[in-house]
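Complex 473.
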Amino acid sequence: MSRKNHIEIDDGIVKRIGRRADEERLRAFVVGGYVRDLLLGRRVKDIDIVVVGDGIALGKKVATEVGRSNVVVYEKFGTAMLQLDDVKIEFVGARRESYTKSSRKPTVQKGTLEDDLSRRDFTINAIAASINKDDFGAIVDPLGGRKDLEEKILRTPLEPRATFDDDPLRILRAFRFAAQLHFAVDPSALQAAREMADRLKIVSQERISDEFLKIIASPKPSVGLMLMQETGVMKVVFPEIAQLAGVDQRRDYHHKDVFLHTLKVVDNISEVTDNVWLRIAALLHDIAKPRTKAFKEGMGWTFHGHEEIGARMVKPIFRRLKLPLDHVKYVEKLVRLHLRPMALVDEGVTDSAVRRLLFEAGEEIDDLMTLCRADITSKNQKLVDQVRRNYDTVVAKMAEVEEKDRWRAWQPPVRGDEIMKVCGLQPGPLVGKLKDAITDAILDGRIPNEHGAALEYLLSIKDEILRGDESKL
Ligand code: CTP
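Predicted structure with cytidine-5'-triphosphate bound:
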């Protein structure tokens, strides 16, 4: 990472905003995620602009200049938002913020750039770079954000309690950034998070779930989930997951503790898929274990029916977390079926059992197998290899059965009109009966799948069927 005092910004729109600020004789800076991600060499998305002065006015002027009328103003927060195609630009006047204790509604007072930076969440998000022409790209970093970026640490600009007090969501944001960037959280911030976890209750569910989903979408979600658990934040925002801790498992291809096992499954699946809802299914696959836990003599701990009860817990959880309900059925299905492929191995991989699972899983069969493979978390490599081989057998059998399933669209080689002609029948149920008899004979392998053989068979059975005597068939 460059420790120069300038950063390269080659965004046309940023230059244009800077020129406009020059004309208005305003000092303007890019700040927050934009600068952080540029310094980290990550892909930069949204643009945050801080203006020493009236941010809303500059936002409106820029919008007019680029011929847009879709600028959204939040007077209360002193911000203006402009959506330019897929880039979101937010303008804000530098402020000293204070929040009322019971909500997140700030009362905004004008401030200097340094005031503004020190009221932000983390030092790595409190680095500014000028966009005025005279010193374009010059970095302003009064809080040592660049050093913390290099040391990969999340530190609050103020004493952690004060920063979290301003907006308790920042506790969860710390864990989100830790998971996304693989940074450590400064110990004093962690301690404050522990003490203030309850304050997350005043934050809106939408904001919490937004951050939570970002943790789930990160490269190694367990980093964030573990921090949530250790600080007691999990208990506040997702008690069902918190309760998985300390629940022992019976089978040896699992970790001992359901919480640790679940984290491993989520990490495993995150290595092979970016599908957040499949990751959520992994997070919830054993969610009913605490409430189905029972000790059986000779067997140890059992969790009878946890897959079905777990599936039924999905919808209430989605509702409470205000997650999009159109993913409920998908997650329910995966939770409900997650033991089936394994059961298939135990019971013998018969055609009909495989066909039933294929039918129930439908389009989700591949995701189900991905979940099952992620669910193997034993440290015993021999066992892991064995279970993997078993799943390979199941998948091979599925392919085989699917191949045969072309029978579904298949028609017997003697058609209804021919049956009517040969037997002198009018359309009616008897025609169907004769056709079914031919179909069964072919599927059972009693006669070959050929027109001649089918016709011969028809002639041999027709009299009995027409007499209503099917006992010999
Ligand atoms: N910010 C803050 N406190 C919050 C939310 C945001 O101080 N509770 C500040 C931070 O300086 C942050 C900036 O506002 O960098 C923009 O916020 P946001 O867009 O939510 O996050 P980014 O840092 O841009 O990260 P990402 O784009 O990954 O969400």
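The chain has a mean pLDDT of 89.
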